[in-house]
Amino acid sequence: MPGCRQGPMADAIHHPQATFLGRTRPPDHLVPLSGGRVEEEWRALEARLLGAGGQVFRLGALDSPPGEVFAKIQAVAIDAAGLTYVLEQRRGEVRIFDNSGALVQVVGRSGNGPGELRNPLSLAFTAAGELLVGDLSRQVHVFRRVSDEYFYDRSLRLDVSARSMCVMDDRMFVHGVNLPDAVLIHEFDLQGRKIRAFGKAYASP
């Protein structure tokens, strides 16, 4: 899905699988974000993702170096600088690649300690350039960028697991079901304080 429409990730592209995307048609339920036509925005999204010449680079193969072998890719994000963030769920880490496909940093590791990822689900970025990683453990781990590297800063405890999330200004919007209310969207500040929740899951008649 497209990233938030504000802040440094306004043009970021998120996709749940690290597969090559060919020409596709926009889903029927899409609503234009900028008042334009869905088809035009969809093609613009494809152009940013694939580049003018089609596929930019491919990550992952059985005979690749260890950093490029994937067990389960949970999320992918491309930032405005062209860096690609791949959330490897089973190894509990975020791998960052430059625009040539070279691995430049691995953020986090599997575990239950500070800065460790138990069952990561989602990625997002703050206006300050922090990397957020949502975990099934109902935490969002925050990594602060210093120079060209990310370092663990803190963890936010939520009342839902962040299946996906998006940051706009100083608010974090999390998609996660909180039973028994089955509310879908939860709004938090960047300290993890709940602001509101809205949107109900579909219930068949």
Description:
The protein has 205 residues and is mainly beta. It is 6% helix and 40% strand. The chain is built from one helix and 15 strands, in the order βαββββββββββββββ. A five-stranded antiparallel sheet has the order 1-2-3-4-5, with helices on one face. It has a four-stranded antiparallel sheet with strand order 8-9-10-11, with no helix packed on it. It has a four-stranded antiparallel sheet with strand order 12-13-14-15, with no helix packed on it. The two termini are 29 Å apart. Mean pLDDT is 77; it is low at 5-24 and 26-34.
Number of strands: 15
Main sheet overview: 5 strands, antiparallel
- Element order, helices and strands? EHEEEEEEEEEEEEEE
Count the helices. How many? 1
The fraction of residues in strands falls at 35-45%
Task: Estimate the global geometry from the Cα principal axes.
Answer: globular
| Structural classification | mainly beta
Kindly report how far apart the N and C termini lie: 29 Å
Helical fraction:
under 10%
Low-confidence stretches: 5-24, 26-34
Strand order in space, largest sheet: 1-2-3-4-5
**Quick check: average pLDDT?**
77
Tell me the quaternary state: single chain
- If you compute it from the alpha carbons, what radius of gyration comes out, rounded to the nearest whole angstrom? 17 Å
